[in-house]
Amino acid sequence: MEIEKQIKELNNIISRQSSTTSGKDDINGLAIFEHFIPYELLSRIFCYLNSNELVVCHLVCKRWNELIKEYVWRKKAELISGQTFPFDEKINWVSYYLLCAKNAFNRNLLLSDKVVARDDNECDHGAFETIEFDKNENPPPINVMPFPEDLVVNDQIRCSISSPLSFSGAKKSFRIHLLKEGLTEKILNNIQPIIKVSVWFCCKLDGKEADFSCYTRLLGRPYPEDPDASAFVMRSAQFNKRLNNVDQKGKWFQCTFEFKNYGKGLRRIKFYQEASGEVIVGGASIRLVVPDLDENFDKTNC
Hints:
Layout: H1 2-18, E1 31-32, E2 35-36, H2 39-47, H3 51-57, H4 62-81, H5 93-102, E3 116-119, E4 129-134, E5 152-153, E6 156-161, E7 170-177, H6 185-191, E8 194-203, E9 210-220, E10 232-243, E11 253-259, E12 266-276, E13 279-289
């Protein structure tokens, strides 16, 4: 089915170009060293070029320029992100170029160097302490049950631990500016990627009673043309759990949020976590996924 759609798209491009060319121009851009290169093969070759090389190819001839803008950038964005983007004439090639250059999909946006992270604590000993160690370290520096595979990245485990000395709780917030991550207003408004949030947490086997809470907020602009307008909350989800039973100590728990069909205007995502007692938090992630066009329902869960 997908192959048939690709062939149909290429045939439409060929038909439009054929109607505006004649004579020698019929094979302009399709003949290399006197060998004819089919559209299908040429578009596949273009997908192997990096973003800067593909931009240069725009300048070779009119035929290449149209093929790359109307088809190749979207297919390249699909290959890089592992997602399938539905054809939308309102989304121009620049949006797909940015997705290729920055790859906003298929990665954890909380790990981006553009994310604004802040410890919202009244005193130093209330902050989360970050530790990183090898997954094969024995014994591990944290007295907990085996770590979930989701926490292992390049054979390393990275966690943050709240201080037991904190009376008001350790607090940390993250702000993701989606336009800085390579997304465009048209991608956000027309495709509305699914936003998947996940975080693992537990308390030590020898720890005392502890509490963990987190929330995610989707922030939009009521007037996109006014950069000074206050952001408003489009959607939000919150989770709270108290760890006070013997059978809960050292055991890992996972909290997930999923947002769909949240409407137009999304620009930022805020993620907030808070813990009192010795709570280990790891594997927090926010990822974007292209929605299935057959699904038209909204779902937020935890």
